[in-house]
Every structure is written in structure tokens, then in C-alpha cells.
Amino acid sequence: MTRTTIRVAWHLTSLIWLGMAALLVRLQQTPMDFAACFLWVMTAIFTASGLVALVASHGRHLSWVFFLPVAALCARFASGL
């Protein structure tokens, strides 16, 4: 379990950095409302993180319980902007 947890954590960290890079590229190409862009990128990152944690650990590691609600909140606030 520990080996899988470390491997998944490594990949989730990489996913976060890729999401931040996508945010910077998007903001450079088309200046737009920073808050909405940021929240949509965070929605994608937290959704992917939650799903990866859920699938990789077969639901045993409870990080997905925190990632998916945060993704839902980000999507809710981003759609309101």
C-alpha cells in the first residue's frame, strides 16, 4: 500500500504542475478573468486527483473523499463567475 501511495502522490504532484502550466499558457494566450480560469483548472486538477486516488487505491486511501468535494466546490464557484 505504501509503495502505491508514494507512486500516486508523485503523479498527482506532476498533475498539479501540469495544471498550473496550462493555466499560465491559457492566461498568456487569451487574457481573461483570472478567477474563473483558475477555478476551472483547479476543478480539473482536483477531479483528476480524486479519480486517480479512488481507482489506484481501490477506495482504501481516503484522499478522494477530500479531492472530489473540493472539485465540486470549485466547479460551483467557477460557473457562478
Can you characterise this structure?
- The chain is mainly alpha-helical and 81 residues long.
- Helix content is 83%, strand content 0%.
- The protein is built from 3 helices and no strands.
- The protein has helices at residues 2-29, 34-56, 64-79.
- The longest helix is centred in the first third of the chain and has 28 residues, at 2-29.
- The N and C termini lie far apart (40 Å).
Keywords for this structure?
81 residues, 0% strand, mainly alpha, single chain
Number of distinct helices: 3
Give the overall shape. flat
Q: Total strand count, please?
A: 0
Fraction of residues in H or I helices: over 70%
Report the radius of gyration as a whole number of Å. Answer: 14 Å
* Straight-line N-to-C gap: 40 Å
Helical/strand content category? mainly alpha
Can you summarize the main beta sheet?
A: none
* Residue windows where pLDDT falls under 50 for at least 5 positions: none
Q: Return the average pLDDT rounded to an integer.
A: 86
Query: What's the SSE pattern?
Result: HHH
Question: How much strand?
Answer: under 5%
